Amino acid sequence: MTVTIRIARGEADLALVHEVRREVFIVEQGIAEEEEWDDLDPTSEHLLAVGPEGEPVGTARLIFGEPALGITGGVGGRVLLGRLAVLKTARGTGLGAELVRAVEAAGRARGAREMELHAQVQALGFYERLGYAAEGPVYDDAGIPHRTMTRVL
User: Which three-class secondary structure state does DSSP give residue 85?
Assistant: First the structure.
C-alpha cells in the first residue's frame, strides 16, 4: 500500500483525521467521545496518512508551545506526540513507525529537542523499538493503563 503522510490543512483534512480517530479510539477501544475530543486539537499540528485513493489510514498529532509546556511540567524544548492511530487495514505495514518519525521531524522543525508521549501499556514495546524510554508509574487515561515515554530527538 502506497501511503502519503502530510500535515492536515483545512476542514476536509481535519474531518479525515477525526474519521480515523473515531474508528480507532471510540469504536474499537470504547473511549468516550467527550474524552477523545479535547481543547488541544485546535492548537495542535495534525499529521494525516492517506492511501493511494486519498482515503485516510492513519493520523497523529503534535502538541507544541504553551500547551506542551503545561503538559510536560514546563520542560523546555519538549513537545508531545499524541493520538497516534492507524486503521486496521494499514496495521503491520510500518505506518505507525512512519507517523512517529513524521511527528518527530515536525517537532524538530519547531526547535524541539525532546519528544514525550503517553503510551497505552500494550504499546510500550512498539515505542521502545523506536527509541523511547518509559518513565514514571503506570496511570489510567480514559480507562486504559498508560505510561509516559520520552526520547531525545
Answer: strand
The answer to whether 49 and 56 have CB atoms below 8 angstroms apart is yes
**Mean pLDDT per 10-residue interval, the chain, length 153 residues:** 93 96 96 91 96 95 90 88 96 96 96 95 96 96 94 96
Terminal alpha carbon distance of the chain: 28
CATH fold of the domain at 4-152: Aminopeptidase (3.40.630)
- H-helix or E-strand spanning residue 58: strand 56-63
Q: In the chain, what are the domain boundaries? A: 4-152
Looking at residue 76, its pLDDT comes to: 86
Q: Ramachandran region of residue 90, left (φ > 0), alpha (ψ -120 to 50) or beta?
A: alpha
The CA-based dihedral angle spanning residues 75, 98, 90, 23, taken in that order and rounded to the nearest 10 degrees? 20
Q: β-strand 114-120 against 78-86: which pairing, if any?
A: parallel
Task: Find, among 98, 106, 107, the residue nearest to 130 by Cα.
Answer: 98
Give residue 111's pLDDT: 93
How do the residues of the chain divide into helix, strand and coil, expressed in percent and rounded to 5? Answer: 40, 35, 25
